[in-house]
Amino acid sequence: MIRRRIKQVRRYLITSLLAITMTLGGVANAKDSAPVAIAIHGGAGTILKENFTPELEAQYAATLKKAVEHGYALLQRGEPGEKAVVETIQILENSPLFNAGIGAVYTYDEEHELDASIMHGGTLNAGAVAGVKTIRSPIAAALAVMQVSPHVMLAGAGAEAFAQEQGMSPVDNHIFDTQKRLKSLRQAKARMEKAGITHGGQRSNERFGTVGAVVLDKHGNIVAGTSTGGMTAKRYGRIGDAPIIGAGTFADNASCAVSATGHGEYFIRYHVAADICARVKYQHDSLEQAADDVINNVLVKAGGDGGVIAIDAQGNIAMPFNSKGMYRAKIDTNGKLAVGIFREWLPTSL
């Protein structure tokens, strides 16, 4: 009798362990097979093929490809979306080709003031920094604001002090200097002087420099991030849309994640990133329809130029722009890579 009871208990335990193992295995397999996707941009503007040498075009394409592939690899490993967004953007921040971090444009006073933001679509948590001069990676500081502080946006000296408390050593502002951007500043100031204006002497390709990333991770979360050096020859502490949640960056698992690039004042006034996601959530527009309508209809009618990258929880990607070009790249849920600079995508062999 006792022996039979022991056998029954043993059989029950074995069956239970097998069931638990199969359940855990199923969860693991589901996570392993969960789709991931990523889209990035390096700014929009008057980007014309005739202004590019083959070597320069190849440099841009290679850097975009490196960044998007790095982010995609992190997502495939199951890393959280915010990690993929930050590390992807840091590759672009570290390239003098783009207006973010190294290579940031100059203010009127020949300094660099940087902005960045990030938002998590699952929690709706967000972090941003604005007008910082001594933070090596603004997107990393924005992540710290989101994860460590109770706030959403920190600016100027306060943001820099917070970053130092998080272990980010301050850097000299000249670390962001490049001859290319200094030349652009002097040209812009010459145009401003000739026109008798105190601001607004930038060409569109000087205005629109921004970098960003949007991702879908294996946990089903979508995340968006944006980083920029702002507008060439900006004055008076001007801040654009990049660090403003809802304007230049937005993410909500129930709709979409967006990172914008363009004339920031228009993106702020028209709440571009949040408007796209609201159309998806409340009007049930497709991601492509919502993004295209805001960029190529609403903004165009208002006189605003630029573009966005957007992704939803199913991994659909939209990348509309109403300017001549937009530095961009994506890897979709099927693992297909595409890189673009001008209106058409570049050959996939890059």
TrEMBL record:
SUPFAM superfamilies in the record: N-terminal nucleophile aminohydrolases (Ntn hydrolases)
CDD domains given in the database record: Asparaginase_2
Keywords, sorted A to Z: Autocatalytic cleavage, Hydrolase, Protease, Signal
Residue(s) at site: Cleavage: G209, T210
Active site: T210 (nucleophile)
A Pfam cross-reference name: Asparaginase_2
Highest rank taxon of the organism: Bacteria
Gene Ontology BP, a term: proteolysis
Residues reported to bind substrate: R238, I239, G240, D241, T261, G262, H263, G264
Stretch forming the signal peptide: 1-30
GO molecular function: hydrolase activity, acting on carbon-nitrogen (but not peptide) bonds, in linear amides; peptidase activity
This protein's name: Isoaspartyl peptidase
